[in-house]
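[scheduler] slot 2 assigned
[scheduler] job type: sequence-to-structure, two independent chains
[scheduler] chain ordering preserved from manifest
[runner] begin chain α
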Amino acid sequence: MLNGLFVEQRRARRWGVFFKGLTFAYLIAVLGIYFSSVSLGTGSPGKSEEHVAVIEIAGPISADEAANADSIVWSLRDAFKAEKAKAIILRINSPGGSPVQSGYVYDEIKRLRALNPDKPVYAVIMDIGASGAYYIAAAADEIYADKASLVGSIGVVSGGFGFVDLMEKVGVERRAMTAGKNKGFLDPFSPLKDSDKVFWQSVLNTTHMQFIDQVKKGRGDKLVDEPDLFTGLVWTGEQAVAKGLIDGLGSTSYVAREIVGQETLIDYSSQMSPLDQVIEKFGVSFGKTIAAQLGIESGYSIR
């Protein structure tokens, strides 16, 4: 029995040494990748030479997403402060999102542009620049896109579901108490009232008119007078040129090279520190490798 205990203790020590060594190797690998990435980046162009500042606006525009107003605004302020930044390009690839977040960015672009009249702002739409993303783009001096980019969607949408009939079938009783007769309006578990629908439609219409006014202020006489321009439709970049929604077709590099006259691009977008990026990427990769070795799969998949 004593021999068995000694054997178990030796095994436990070996496993302890193994996992400590594995952890140590993991840290060494992370630091090695970090320092190599830093050393590789030393040859990149710095902000001390003339360049075009690029700010990424990618994904949904929301306070909880990477494309949030605070991050974009801080990037804009840094870019406008940079003396060697000859122009700013907003590289947009977003379906839109919060009108509030988009409005914050729009207003800040206009404010900073007024304070820096010699530093133009260009918007370049990649795959899509719709709804709130186009709201932001309208604040730029000029907008460019690819011929197949999706542009526009100048409208406001609010969606939801009603579960009244389902609750009756299941036999569930709704018990909601409010203080204020309209506090529970648009409750998905209660029948939709005509008064609620009329009120909410007025809110959407008001927001839509705010959107339209800002686009008109940004684009001015460039817009073509068409009845369907502000109905929420989207167009290709080629169609958007004809409607005055954008100024021309071109990429970020094209605008920097041909319009600004400066080929050097520097990203001013808010990002994680290099070490955090390495840790996250290495951690995800490490976790996937271990899961694959153990035969563990994700909880869902798309087929």
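[runner] end chain α
[runner] begin chain β
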Amino acid sequence: MILALRALGVGDLATAVPALRALRAAHPGRDLVLAAPGWLAPLVDLVGGVDRLVPTDGLGRPDPALGTPRVAVNLHGRGPESHRMLAGTRPGRLLAYTSPEAGHHDGPEWRDDEHEVDRWCRLLDWYGIPADRTDLDLRRPAPGGAPTGMTVLHPGSKIPAKRWPPGRFAALARELAARGHRVVLTGSPDERATAQRIAEAAGLPADAVLAGRTDLGRLAALVAYARLVVSGDTGVAHLATGYRTPSVVLFGPVSPARWGPPPGRPRHRALWAGGQGSPRWEGVGSHPTLAAIGVDEVVTAVDEVERAVRVSRAVAA
């Protein structure tokens, strides 16, 4: 059995897809087990290649269901907690970044400024397992009851500093709707009230507010068949990358060089007013680098990604 630990969120799992597929290719005859939060199960199914998910929240004592793996791979962090958790499964071999504090002296050195996709590909490459950083595509689910062709605006984030001001989302929604976009607003149940205020300010109908009404599987289908996604630096942006859905991602305080869509894909645009304000933001509301992004700039980026889609379709035809 090969055990991989990634007990984090949607974007974290999506950025680990190339590494998980590299492990699958390197060990075709062994079960690949992923330790990750149970609520990610619908997305794990869309990654493909993972034989079993063991629901894992946090980095405490390892679940006995993890068993004793032949190889354990730390795709979670630099340690020491994650290293020690995996070491507790008594693996035949631990693949991880070096962590003297955890007693792990093998592996490459951690780089703080590295893109999250490259981080895990480099780890495996150090151990002789090649990984393709561009292998980010997710399996496309059946649309089910999810509407298709929508423009998805996702104003929320678990981190307040990563939330573009609601008034600007309302202005953007109003402009896109006037251009013929069928706009919907997504988010968690806790973000539903904000989404409702945005919809009201933009003049959208009440049924445009999907925040709190979509589970992860339905959200993935919504993004997979969307016309466009506009969001902050959060999990929905990575779903758009995984489905090659045109997207505009608003960054602040973290640079897109660490979490942005892959380069060379003109249907994805990352906006960041880098250099304005400190990454350590203790104020209220959006980080200064995010607040510096104007509605007109986002509308221009929307035009650019939609133009890129039209060009690619013309070339394909």
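[runner] end chain β
[qc] chain β: The first helix runs from residue 10 to 15.
[scheduler] slot 2 released
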